[in-house]
Amino acid sequence: MPSDHDVVACDTCFARIRWAITVRGRRQAVDADPDETGNLAVHRDGTGTLKVRVLTQERPTLEHAEWQAMPHAATCTRPRPRAPRSSSRPGRRATVRQGNWRWSR
Q1: What is the pLDDT of residues 52-100, one digit of tens each?
Q2: Shortest CA distance to 20 belongs to which of 56, 44, 37?
Q3: Are the C-beta atoms of 31 and 70 separated by less than 8 Å?
Q4: Within the chain, how many helices (H) and strands (E) appear?
Q5: Alpha-carbon distance 8 to 18, whole Å?
Q6: Beta carbons of 15 and 33 less than 8 angstroms apart
């Protein structure tokens, strides 16, 4: 069982969570307590950083010092509403501006 020194409370539901780093380098909140129904494998690397990976068909079992956890986004009782996505081209307007275009000679 992992220690509780890195456990914090969720900002919205106040559940116990831990912050981990995904394979792609992003932060992900996971439930603090191990869960046998979770789809994540969590372990602490040599520097003490909590790392997380998804249990897939290619690697379906826990390896070495990993423990199974549930992503907190799946269990949060009061999730934050998602922000609308921006356009694929930032800085560009989605509307056409009307203008008086003249060609000068």
Answers
A1: 999 988 888 888 889 999 999 999 988 777 777 666 666 665 666 666 6
A2: 44
A3: yes
A4: 1, 6
A5: 6
A6: no
Res. 9 pLDDT band, cuts 50 70 90 = very high
- Can you tell me the distance from the alpha carbon of 75 to that of 80, in angstroms, rounded to the nearest whole number? 12
Which pTM was predicted?
A: 0.70
Hey, what are 47's tokens?
Answer: 């520097």
Rounded to whole angstroms, how far apart are CA atoms 53 and 105? 64
Phi, psi values for residue 87, rounded to 5°: -70, 165
Strand extents, DSSP E, the chain: 8-9, 16-21, 27-31, 40-44, 50-54, 67-69
